[in-house]
Amino acid sequence: MPGTDMYVANENAEGHGEICFRGRNIFMGYYKDEKSTRGTLDENGFLHTGDLGYVDSDGFVYLTGRIKELIITAGGENVAPLLIESLLKQEMPQVLSNCMVVGDKRKFLGVLICLYTAKDKNDNPTEVLAPELVRFFSKNGIQVQTTQEAMNSVGVNQLIREAIERANIKTISRAQSVQGWRVLPTDFAIDTGELTATMKLRRKFVEKKYEEFVEDMYRSPLPSCLASPQHEKTVAALQAKL
């Protein structure tokens, strides 16, 4: 944009960092409030947006998340969860309504998964799967009607596993690979506290609410139905039908 300077602060090895702008059309400072201005602009007059992103070889700017949402793994790797969540949604658009990546101070990343479900009279999600999702599963040889059945279904979790593996191939580093997951009993919603009025994830609230799911996932990354002795035979039979 004419009259605007931009750079990426604190870049990592992949060129990702905080997007910063400077210009008369961006922010010149607070009127007669030098102290607040100094707290907003750096010494070179750049506004630090708090947005994470990178610039490609053609000069296009891509936003990948917010600094305040950044996950720092046990290995010290900085991970922007929004980018990974977007990849997961792209790999299972018929299945995944919402998801949230976790892994702060953990040895690996995990993801909490919400399936598409039917709504009640107040437009809040129920534990009954959406008709379209039931049909999708049925076409893949999987007979489930509720989130509880899906949570314990080898077929559902195998589809999720394959989608996660495809998404992991597209991540920029091993630290961004998802290694565990759990399907949640209901979708996220405003009324139940997981989403803000503007549909943003309340990450700390979600992680606290589903703390038992998170801890179980870090004890055993795979859902129990995939960790059973009969798992490999069941998966082979399922794949033969696809």
UniProtKB/TrEMBL annotation:
The keyword Transport does not apply. It catalyses: a long-chain fatty acid + ATP + CoA = a long-chain fatty acyl-CoA + AMP + diphosphate. Keywords: Fatty acid metabolism, Ligase, Lipid metabolism. Transmembrane segments: none annotated. One of its GO terms (cellular component) is endoplasmic reticulum. It comes from the Eukaryota. One of its GO terms (molecular function) is long-chain fatty acid-CoA ligase activity. The keyword Transit peptide does not apply. Its EC number is 6.2.1.3. This is AMP-binding enzyme domain-containing protein. It comes from Toxoplasma gondii CAST.
